[in-house]
Write a structure and sequence with these properties.
Blueprint (H helix, E strand, L loop, with lengths): L2 H12 L1 H10 L3 E9 L16 H6 L5 H4 L9 E5 L1 H11 L6 H6 L8 H10 L5 H5 L3 H11 L11 H13 L6 H4 L1 H9 L5 H27 L3 E4 L8 H5 L19 H19 L5 E2 L8 H9 L4 E5 H8 L21 E3 L4 E5 L2 H9 L5 H17 L10 E7 L12 H12 L4 E3 L2 H7 L4 E3 L19 H23 L6 H11 L2 H6 L9 H19 L43 E4 L12 E8 L3 E8 L1 H5 L7 E10 L7 E2 L16 E2 L1 E8 L2 E11 L3 E4 L6 E4 L2 E7 L11 E9 L2 E6 L5 E3 L3
Parallel strand pairs: 1-2, 1-8, 1-9, 2-3, 4-5, 5-7, 6-10
Antiparallel strand pairs: 6-7, 11-12, 12-13, 13-21, 14-17, 14-22, 15-16, 17-18, 18-19, 20-21, 22-23, 22-24
Helix pairs in contact: 1-19, 5-13, 10-13, 19-20, 22-23, 22-25, 23-25
Length: about 775
């Protein structure tokens, strides 16, 4: 798709007269290069090793040379977003001597490694781009090819020297080539190629620490020189719109979600703490903010303004939705009318907002690594020039092209870590008098006529919604876990506000609010290490209880990735079924359904095998599929079976009381700690439906029997129920949350689902 454009770039480069014509007739275009740097928390505890090495490896590959490259050019400036938790990790590695699992093994004598250590090395020390980071190094490539010959890991197939070489080379290839000039020892080690010693490996790790120690001081220097502007994101990179108001996420699949998170204060604290931390470490308070994943909402923009921020950024798609203007591109990717995208905006509260071009990050991240670096840079330059030429008819003098993207993950796909591409691109721009690179705050101050932005569409850079972090069963379950733990924390804080470990526990909550956990949970993303992310998330939730001296809930021991008891489907729309007890399913096609697993209930004792649920404007409908084996078996058909349905409205304005059933074990599931407004009892005895009744919560955690005359129910092949929403004190504007519990004689058998609440949204 882009080969002809790259060739076009070469032709224009040759025909300097045409370039001069374009330069002399175009309005000056400002360009904001804006690089985002972030890694999540990879530690289980503040004193523990990092489980993943990405902070350390990217620290010697990307974070520093992305700004020092500006030394090669007189006029090039750039904007960098630093998430505070990343800077904390720099300090931990550089000043505190922290290790990750990889570096710890690297500085361990070979004779002290056991087979488990060696298996880890063989499985994890080839985590590098093959084309640019493994193939160019003969011994590393040989070891890679050897490892590929074995389907199963067998530590005995590699010699001690090969393990030493593998660890050394893995760490060496992550160094950016620019450091070879600064560190003669690094050049010597790379030239050695193989036969690395224990001392060599220790030197490699210490060289990395030395580079990491320089990152924060160098950023301070470049800020003072006016070459770099630093912004930040909320401290642990949470998706603020979700924390501020879960309903702003326009969620279609509410499976397992609480109706409200009540995390607005957390959102404010994470942002405030981030601004304070950046000012503390770099000496300058950020004026701008990069919202995590470019996720925005009206509530978030108000928060930014209230915290004294001047501007923020989001994506082209959000702008299109906010101003009702779609940006059309031709088949080569050229935008027909770029005018609205190259303007700065002023939101109705006074906050300035800029929007990035969404195609350029895709080119840099995914397309250009496949081409010659210099030709790719020229292609991007010519794209910028074509865009500039389309602004000739603009009524304005100032225009800002925002190139904003991840600044750390794509360069390993380029030869020489992208330096050829970036140097060529920056040189072309630096020598073009009709182009300039700017610090965003400088441009915001200079531009006196920002376009008005009367509304902002809630969403992110991906599909203009939040579905990569919520609105999927496993992601929703993660939010439910987080909400449950946070509720326990809040309750403890109210009782013991002066507990010395409150802030330690709060930090663990903030860590778990980070976006990365939810990004990797569920569909569609796969890190290849999802089990590690799941483990880290649950361990940090456990840390809350450890700091507070409380028992850790048993449910946190179970990986979310294997969560069960989820509905096979949620209601697709309203239903109006006949309440006749027949098993005809025609009127239940739009209902939600959930299968009851055998779980701790033996199949022959499980009376209900499936539940369907649905609604219309006035009623809540339930259908229970009865296990025919139980009714036909002489031993079981005369027994009593009970199903309890606990419900509440989403606003929780009504009186709530706890579940009355007695647990058979000491395992405390999240749903058992919830409170509800209604208890619906369904009792079958000797094969007959004996009664269906409603018990309502009253103050002081008590329950009282209600009239059930408005209920309709029938039992033949299945049990059908029709329950008016009015009987449940749920109005037409409220969601309903509910859970099923199978029980007998007041002892609960299983909760359905066992780790979440079901919900129904009533429009």
């Amino acid at each position: 798709m882009y080969l002809d454009l790259i060739f076009l770039g070469g032709i224009i480069d040759i025909h300097s007269g045409l370039r001069f014509f374009m330069m002399s007739h175009n309005k000056k275009l400002s360009i904001a290069f804006y690089w985002h740097m972030h890694q999540p928390v990879y530690q289980l505890s503040p004193d523990g090793d990092y489980l993943m090495a990405w902070v350390r490896l990217h620290a010697v590959k990307d974070y520093l040379d992305m700004i020092t490259i500006t030394d090669n050019f007189k006029n090039i400036k750039m904007n960098v977003n630093l998430v505070p938790v990343l800077l904390d990790a720099f300090i931990d590695y550089g000043e505190n001597g922290a290790h990750d699992l990889h570096s710890r093994l690297t500085v361990t004598p070979i004779e002290e490694l056991n087979d488990e250590d060696k298996e880890f090395i063989l499985n994890n020390f080839f985590d590098a781009n093959y084309k640019t980071m493994i193939y160019p190094y003969p011994e590393y490539n040989r070891l890679f090819q050897k490892r590929q010959t074995f389907r199963e890991v067998d530590p005995s197939q590699f010699t001690d020297q090969e393990y030493s070489d593998l660890m050394a080379l893995f760490n060496l290839v992550w160094f950016d080539s620019v450091y070879q000039k600064e560190y003669p020892a690094l050049r010597k080690l790379l030239k050695k190629g193989k036969n690395y010693t224990y001392d060599d490996r220790c030197v490699i790790i210490e060289l990395q620490r030395d580079i990491i120690r320089k990152i924060i001081p160098e950023y301070k220097k470049y800020i003072r020189k006016g070459k770099v502007e630093v912004t930040t994101s909320p401290y642990y990179h949470p998706i603020l719109p979700i924390l501020l108001d879960i309903n702003s996420a326009n969620i279609s699949n509410k499976e397992g979600l609480p109706s409200a998170l009540n995390m607005e204060k957390d959102a404010e604290m994470q942002m405030q703490d981030a601004l304070d931390r950046i000012e503390e470490l770099l000496g300058v308070r950020p004026r701008g903010v990069w919202p995590s994943e470019h996720c925005v909402s009206p509530q978030e923009l108000d928060l930014f303004k209230n915290l004294g921020l001047d501007w923020t950024i989001s994506d082209e798609g959000i702008l299109a939705e906010s101003i009702n203007f779609e940006f059309i591109r031709d088949f080569k990717g050229y935008m027909e009318d770029p005018y609205h995208l190259v303007k700065s905006y002023e939101y109705k509260n006074g906050l300035k907002v800029i929007f990035r071009n969404s195609m350029i990050p895709n080119l840099i991240g995914f397309e250009y690594p496949n081409f010659d670096a210099e030709l790719a840079a020229k292609d991007l330059y010519e794209r910028i020039k074509v865009m500039q030429s389309k602004l000739l008819s603009s009524p304005d003098e100032n225009h800002l092209l925002t190139i904003a993207m991840d600044g750390e993950n794509c360069w390993e796909n380029y030869p020489h870590d992208g330096s050829d591409f970036l140097n060529t691109l920056y040189k072309l721009i630096d020598e073009d008098d009709s182009l300039e690179t700017v610090l965003i705050s400088d441009y915001i101050d200079r531009e006196k006529h920002h376009k008005k932005l009367n509304k902002i569409k809630s969403g992110s850079w991906i599909n203009r919604n939040f579905k990569l972090w919520i609105d999927e069963p496993v992601k929703n379950l993660a939010w439910h876990y987080l909400k449950q733990v946070r509720d326990d924390f809040v309750e403890f804080e109210k009782k013991y506000p002066n507990n010395p470990y409150i802030e330690n526990a709060r930090k663990e909550i903030f860590i778990c609010e980070g976006s990365d956990w939810f990004w990797w949970y569920g569909e569609p993303n796969d890190s290849g290490r999802d089990n590690i992310f799941d483990y880290l998330f649950r361990e940090h939730l456990k840390n809350v209880y450890i700091y507070l001296g409380l028992d850790i809930p048993k449910y946190l021991d179970e990986p979310l990735l294997s969560a069960t008891n989820k509905p096979s489907r949620y209601p697709k729309g309203e239903i109006k079924p006949k309440i006749d007890g027949s098993d005809n399913e025609d009127s239940w096609l739009n209902a939600g359904c959930i299968d009851i697993p055998d779980g701790p209930v033996l199949k022959e004792n499980k009376f209900f095998s499936r539940i369907c649920f649905g609604y219309d404007k006035e009623n809540f409908y339930l259908r229970f599929y009865v296990n025919s084996y139980v009714l036909e078996n002489p031993v079981t058909k005369d027994r009593s079976y009970q199903m309890y349905i606990y419900t509440r409205n989403s606003s929780k304005r009504t009186s709530l009381s706890p579940i009355r059933l007695i647990n058979k074990t000491e395992d405390i599931l999240p749903v058992t700690k919830q409170k509800f407004h209604n208890e619906i009892q369904v009792t079958v005895r000797q094969g007959e439906l004996r009664y269906v009744r409603i018990i309502k919560s009253i103050p002081n955690n008590l329950w009282v029997l209600q009239s059930s005359k408005n209920l309709k129910y029938a039992f033949d092949k299945v049990i059908d129920l029709q329950i008016p929403f009015d009987s449940l004190d749920i109005n037409s504007q409220e969601n309903m949350e509910f859970v099923f519990v199978t029980a007998g004689f007041g002892l609960n058998d299983i909760f359905i689902p066992n780790e979440m609440l079901l919900n129904i949204k009533r429009d």
